[in-house]
Amino acid sequence: MDCCICSPMATMYRLPRNTVCAPCHEGAKAIIGFLNKDEQEGDGCLLYTSRCGLRDAWEQVKEMRDREENTNQRAAFLEQGFALAWREGIHTDIFIKPGTGAPIPAHKAILAARSEVFRHMLSADDRCKAPAGDSISLPELSHDELSLLIAFLYTGALDQGLPERHLHALLVAADKYDVPFLRRACEARLAAAVDPRNVLRTLEVAELSSSAVLRERAMDTVVEHAEQVVFSPQYEEFAVRNAGLCVEITRALLAKMSTTRTKAPCIEDV
Ligand SMILES: [Zn+2]
């Protein structure tokens, strides 16, 4: 069938309008449905696209594209300015000491604006009359991890391809210093990378950082690949350190077994 929308013929001739292929028909319905839903969620009223069709839907898509472009430009403007201030050490007023390696200069105002915990730490310093330009210590982080944390506070971005151990450290730091945006970024990266080989460490980190989302994802992976995980050499060490999690794993496995048994057809049913 020559579709009047996507067929190569449609670019040259005006084909009969009632010949629309199934993908175009489904796609058009989905776009209008999506935009209506978007509009309902936005201000609670139903949009006109359902009455006026795809032409108005297209106009709305163009508006969305313009808004996205503006937002990207604004984000880039803010990110570049803050990143430059940090990278070039412009008027920094505090040193942050990692557990290992050299201290990193930063700005008190940025730390306080991004984290309530830092704000309290810094205002406690003010009350105690700590010398100006003094330092704070984050001994649980290595120099590289601290550098990534501070970079995120300035730019809101995580480098692509960060090793898992850095993401683990950043997630724990996001929890400790109360930076929800960093927490979500780390959770998303780690959840996407969970597999039977790294799941035990991921589960430990999820527990340590009180990350319910990551914990659930990791627990599902343990249950799904139970044999590979529970008989792995790492499981014994994990069990020594995490008795509570092992109890949960056992319960989750038993719950899965009983569900599987319930779903299995009885001989009489066959
Ligand atoms: Zn088509």
UniProtKB/TrEMBL annotation:
Gene3D superfamilies: 1.25.40.420, Potassium Channel Kv1.1, Chain A
Pathway: Protein modification; protein ubiquitination
CDD domains, A to Z: BACK, BTB_POZ_ZBTB_KLHL-like
Top-level lineage group: Eukaryota
InterPro entries: At1g01640-like, BTB/POZ_dom, SKP1/BTB/POZ_sf
Job of this protein: May act as a substrate-specific adapter of an E3 ubiquitin-protein ligase complex (CUL3-RBX1-BTB) which mediates the ubiquitination and subsequent proteasomal degradation of target proteins.
Protein name per the record: BTB/POZ domain-containing protein
Protein's organism: Dichanthelium oligosanthes
